[in-house]
């Protein structure tokens, strides 16, 4: 198959793809009949497919492409690094300049308790590191019985054994007899779907208190950590009620367990702050990062480690038998540094907070007037539209859960906008460089999509 020319034989590509390629999170049978969508180019917020159709990338790839597609500065930084040192590892007391520079930059950009990073290749790997590091920490503290990690139902922390186990996706658990032992899940703060007859604030307090109840039930002396995304992304952009994080923070302050804020989606400006933890005023001990760290230009992740944990790992521990061949890969570090430079120089995070964020939120919330929409929510530039059969009644759901959401997602793509379906909601997380005109276009296509689905 020659894919070098600019003429893409869509059908032949689709057939070869279906014949030889097992995709992540895909029902393969459908590929034979429908074929995959082949994306060939991208620039700014726009994707182009193999038939020349332009589509607005309302998911920033997979929540990654903060700076938009096609920035030559990143490609050039990677090219330069590849010519100097294409690869070397960081094991056994070695380092290289891009890893050092990125570690230093991350210490500067992240909240003050963080001065160390452990590099990984992805968000999933970062959460494998979390899983091992929290247990290692408690072992070093002389508390080896503190092993259980508490996660939340419908949370997403990746697709490896640790990531799947810490996450609370029941469908994923069902495939492969997961979670692994030592993980406990509690309720998510999803008021729209699970709030029953409670008002939002009361539900937020109830959901927070589930953490206290779980710790008390399991025994504080057995619990190592609580892991949560500041805003659940893949679970459907679940923005917690205002009461939730202050109450969780109080519970954590009163108990001796580690707090892990998974910022793989909420990091690097998505909420209008550099990190979701800052947005909510929460203070994690460990903070997995990935995606927006390099805007997805090359794969890189890591775990920010607060001084409280790093001091123990460094000063009490010996060698931590953990690491990845591609931890802090030089080319990936160069891509991340170039991406962070663009975020800073172009004041993209500030722009999300003060300009394009509020602008998009206004357009998005206006979609809440549509008869099909029960809730239109957005923080920074991540949002969801809950589709409902009966306007004003959030207890009624469509008969075949997911089918209306999937239909709407497919209409959206046909109309020229990528949105993702989670149950019967549509979710959005566009590149942070979206212009006002593009936000108008996005809202226009989303509205047409709702009309088509209705
Ligand atoms: N954590 C969160 C919050 C995520 O949303 C994701 C991916 O969507 C991951 C971890 C896993 O990251 P990766 O797909 O890079 O392994």
From TrEMBL:
InterPro entries: Aminotrans_3, Aminotrans_3_PPA_site, PyrdxlP-dep_Trfase, PyrdxlP-dep_Trfase_major, PyrdxlP-dep_Trfase_small. Keywords: Aminotransferase, Pyridoxal phosphate, Transferase. One of its GO terms (molecular function) is adenosylmethionine-8-amino-7-oxononanoate transaminase activity. The keyword Cell division does not apply. One of its GO terms (biological process) is biotin biosynthetic process. Its cofactor is pyridoxal 5'-phosphate. Belongs to the class-III pyridoxal-phosphate-dependent aminotransferase family. This is Putrescine aminotransferase. It comes from Breoghania corrubedonensis.
């Amino acid at each position: 198959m020659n894919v070098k020319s600019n003429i893409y034989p869509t059908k032949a590509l689709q057939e070869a793809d279906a014949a030889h390629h097992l995709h992540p999170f895909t029902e393969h049978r459908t590929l034979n009949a429908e074929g995959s969508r082949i994306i060939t180019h991208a620039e700014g917020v726009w994707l182009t497919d193999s038939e020349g159709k332009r589509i607005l990338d309302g998911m920033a790839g997979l929540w990654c492409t903060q700076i938009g597609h096609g920035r030559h500065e990143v490609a050039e930084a990677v090219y330069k690094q590849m010519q100097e040192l294409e690869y070397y590892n960081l094991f056994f007391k070695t380092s290289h300049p891009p890893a050092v520079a990125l570690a230093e930059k991350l210490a500067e950009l992240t909240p003050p308790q963080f001065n160390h990073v452990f590099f990984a290749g992805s968000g999933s790997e970062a959460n494998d590191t979390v899983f091992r590091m929290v247990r290692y920490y408690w072992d070093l503290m002389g508390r080896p019985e503190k092993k259980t990690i508490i996660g939340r139902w419908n949370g997403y922390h990746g697709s490896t054994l640790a990531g799947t186990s810490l996450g609370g996706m029941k469908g994923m658990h069902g495939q492969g007899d997961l979670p692994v032992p030592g993980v406990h899940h509690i309720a998510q703060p999803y008021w729209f779907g699970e709030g029953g007859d409670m008002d939002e604030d009361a539900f937020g307090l109830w959901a927070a208190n589930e953490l206290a109840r779980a710790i008390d039930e399991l025994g504080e002396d057995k619990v190592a950590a609580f892991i949560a995304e500041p805003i659940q992304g893949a679970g459907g952009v679940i923005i917690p009620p205002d009461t939730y994080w202050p109450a969780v923070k109080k519970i954590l302050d009163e108990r001796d367990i580690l707090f892990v804020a998974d910022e793989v989606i909420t990091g690097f400006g998505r909420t209008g702050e550099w990190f979701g933890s800052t947005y909510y005023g929460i203070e994690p001990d460990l903070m997995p990062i990935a995606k927006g760290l390099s805007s997805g230009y090359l794969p890189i992740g890591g775990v920010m480690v607060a001084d409280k944990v790093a001091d123990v790992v460094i000063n009490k521990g010996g060698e931590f038998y953990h690491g990845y061949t591609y931890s802090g890969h030089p080319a990936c570090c160069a891509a991340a540094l170039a991406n962070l430079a663009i975020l800073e120089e172009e004041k993209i995070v500030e722009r999300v907070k003060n300009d394009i964020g509020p602008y998009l939120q206004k357009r998005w919330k206006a979609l809440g007037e549509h008869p099909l929409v029960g809730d239109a929510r957005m923080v920074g530039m991540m949002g969801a539209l809950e589709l409902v059969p009966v306007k004003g009644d959030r207890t009624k759901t469509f008969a075949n859960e997911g089918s209306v959401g999937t239909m709407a997602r497919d209409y959206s793509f046909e109309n020229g906008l990528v949105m993702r379906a989670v149950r019967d909601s549509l979710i959005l997380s566009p590149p942070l460089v979206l212009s006002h005109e593009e936000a108008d276009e996005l809202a226009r296509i989303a509205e047409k999509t709702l009309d088509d689905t209705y």
